[in-house]
Design a protein that fits this description.
With 157 residues, this protein is an alpha+beta fold. The protein is built from four helices and eight strands; from the N terminus they run αβαβββαβαβββ. It has helices spanning 4-15, 32-43, 83-91, 105-114, and strands spanning 19-28, 46-53, 58-64, 71-77, 94-102, 125-126, 132-136, 146-150. An eight-stranded mixed β-sheet has the order 2-3-4-1-5-8-7-6. β6 (125-126) and β7 form a beta hairpin.
């Protein structure tokens, strides 16, 4: 008979990966302002959020089409040593990631690791708007960089 801890872990691993929806599609761009202007002017998207994330070495913008929930994330490098700068140098601008909203990024990561999937970070990091994030290694996801996003807790003030 499993111990209570083993039972909790087994339950955690079977329920931990709760993908709620496609959160966003990320595009690597060399210039954020130019890209925002293109997507808003050409496709009528609305820029709903911009920020600089020095930990990730990027400036980013989140764009919405109509009243949909799935966002388009435009990601530009802050400097030549950022991951996005290296991505642009090797692959050029374009599709960089597919992100899913998850209920609990730690539980999702634990579940994936138990299934033999590699993640880029041992612990979640801070993402856009205070979210918690981690990434599935592209070699374990058919060549796609998959981001797991746990939205920030609602402000209760």
């Amino acid at each position: 008979m499993p111990s209570p801890d083993e039972s909790r872990r087994a339950t955690h691993l079977t329920t931990g990966l709760r993908v709620l929806r496609v959160d966003h599609v990320g595009l690597a761009v060399p210039d954020l302002d130019t890209a925002v202007a293109y997507w808003t002017d050409t496709f009528g998207m609305t820029c709903v959020h911009t920020e600089t994330n020095p930990d990730q070495g990027v400036r980013e913008a989140m764009l919405r089409a109509g009243d949909g929930e799935t966002m388009l994330q435009l990601i530009a490098p802050l400097g030549p040593d950022s991951t996005i700068a290296r991505f642009l140098d090797t692959r050029g601008p374009g599709l960089q990631q597919l992100a899913y909203t998850v209920a609990d990024v730690v539980a999702a990561a634990d579940t994936l690791r138990a299934r033999g999937v590699r993640l880029l970070y041992d612990e979640p990091r801070t993402g856009t708007g205070g979210s918690l994030i981690n990434f599935v290694h592209p070699k374990d996801a058919g060549g796609v960089l998959v981001e797991l996003v746990q939205p920030p807790a609602p402000d209760r003030t």
